[in-house]
Write a structure and sequence with these properties.
This protein is of the alpha/beta class. The chain has 17 helices and 11 strands.
Length: 415
């Protein structure tokens, strides 16, 4: 066969394109590898496009043409073999060039709900342009806040939690060894799943997540009171160490005026919103905690530590390797069934089904994040067994606090 014939055959060969958007999560490479392997078996070209949607609409896409050996080499690795991007295209950015040039039949997107909704907008645009291209989305976030059926975890969550637990256990041992306190901040913009999962696994005496403030407005004073409550409770029990974990989402639910009043030095964006990504949440809260302890004449050494970026590119644990492989195979199953514009989902029994964003969007087209269920038995039991002051501790606590009732856990939260 001539070179020109081979080139024509390659061009006409049906293709699938894979992009990754948003931030990393353990298991991305497992999904990419699994999708690539199963479609390669059926003689599809498998094109991995770098830089997410930005790469897809570039004049010349930067991409990886997969073969079995590359797909097989990456399946258990952390990070992403495809460079990721948070670029969110407007309608004017959409183009058909890439899809026509490479004879793309399926677009596989890996990301959050924004990535999925953009894929749906793109599919409609392509259809209006006369191209019938399927799109199937694989949901990803270490925050575990996507509303999957049966509260099934998002891929990457358990691996990130496992890595966070390793760090948390070391921090707890350091606190015990030095008789000091550690203040640990974890990722989770809207939901506290990661902080809750790490804190419960590590037996931390205090866990602070956004969902706790379900019956009272969150303030910096209340957050610091919860920390002091735990420190004093342990002190009267003869325990001079501990770790407090706080979800970064607590910062995001604070009123901007509350943040300004705290005296924290922040930069602000063009809309006047504080740029919280530029600061260490653990350092901020540790500074505020130390200020309060000094006011109370309580001498406690505490150290801050943010845990977040360390978790996103770790190697996936066995749970996520299995889940991500299943989701990758599930993409193929749904495609062969003629499904499109959907999210691939796997239940606890391993059954694959499509879910649709429209079923979870509010009137503004936003997907409401899945939060820690504070009414669940697991949440109730764990929060009942943290270390904090209750009325029976008041008398013992008076050697440290003039008004110990101000640090009653249940009163602070109005529970």
């Amino acid at each position: 066969m001539s070179l020109s014939s081979l080139l024509l055959l390659f061009i006409m060969q049906p293709a699938i394109a894979i992009i990754c958007a948003g931030g990393p999560a353990p298991g991305i490479n497992t999904v990419v590898s699994s999708v690539a392997k199963i479609f390669l078996k059926e003689n599809y070209k498998v094109l991995g496009v770098h830089y997410g949607y930005q790469g897809l609409f570039a004049d010349e896409a930067s991409m990886k043409v997969f073969d079995f050996h590359h797909a097989d080499r990456i399946f258990s690795r952390g990070g992403s073999t495809l460079i990721m991007s948070r670029f969110k295209p407007k309608l004017s950015d959409f183009k058909t060039d890439f899809f026509v040039k490479h004879n793309v039949k399926l677009l596989v997107t890996i990301g959050g709900d924004d990535t999925a909704s953009t894929a749906n907008r793109l599919a409609k645009y392509l259809k209006d342009e006369g191209l019938n291209i399927a799109n199937i989305h694989v949901p990803k976030t270490i925050d575990n806040d996507l509303p999957l059926p049966g509260r099934n975890p998002t891929f990457g969550f358990h691996s990130a939690k496992d890595e966070g637990v390793k760090i948390g256990n070391i921090m707890y041992e350091d606190a015990r060894t030095t008789e000091s306190w550690m203040l640990m901040s974890s990722m989770g913009r809207s939901a506290g799943h990661l902080a809750f999962g790490i804190g419960t696994a590590c037996h931390f005496p205090m866990i602070i997540i956004p969902e706790m403030f379900n019956k009272t407005a969150p303030t910096i004073d209340k957050i610091i009171q919860l920390m002091v409550s735990s420190i004093v409770k342990r002190r009267i029990r003869g325990i001079h160490y501990g770790v407090i974990i706080i979800s970064e989402g607590v910062f995001h639910i604070l009123d901007p005026e509350e943040i300004k009043k705290s005296g924290i030095n922040l930069t602000y964006d063009a809309h006047g919103h504080p740029e919280l990504g530029n600061i260490s949440k653990a350092n901020v809260f540790n500074t505020l905690l130390q200020k309060k302890l000094k006011e109370l004449n309580i001498e406690v050494k505490s150290r801050p530590n943010d845990v977040g970026y360390e978790l996103r590119c770790c190697r996936p644990i066995g749970f996520d390797l299995t889940l991500c492989t299943l989701l990758g195979i599930g993409v193929h199953k749904l495609y062969k069934e003629g499904k499109s514009g959907c999210i691939v989902s796997a239940d606890a029994a391993g059954n694959i089904s499509p879910i649709y964003l429209s079923d979870h969007e509010d009137e503004n087209g936003k997907v409401k994040p899945r939060l820690v269920d504070m009414e669940s038995e697991i949440a109730k039991l764990y929060f009942q067994n943290l270390d904090y002051l209750v009325p029976s501790d008041y008398e013992k606590a008076t050697f440290l606090l003039k008004q110990p009732e101000d640090y009653n856990f249940f009163e602070i939260l109005n529970w």
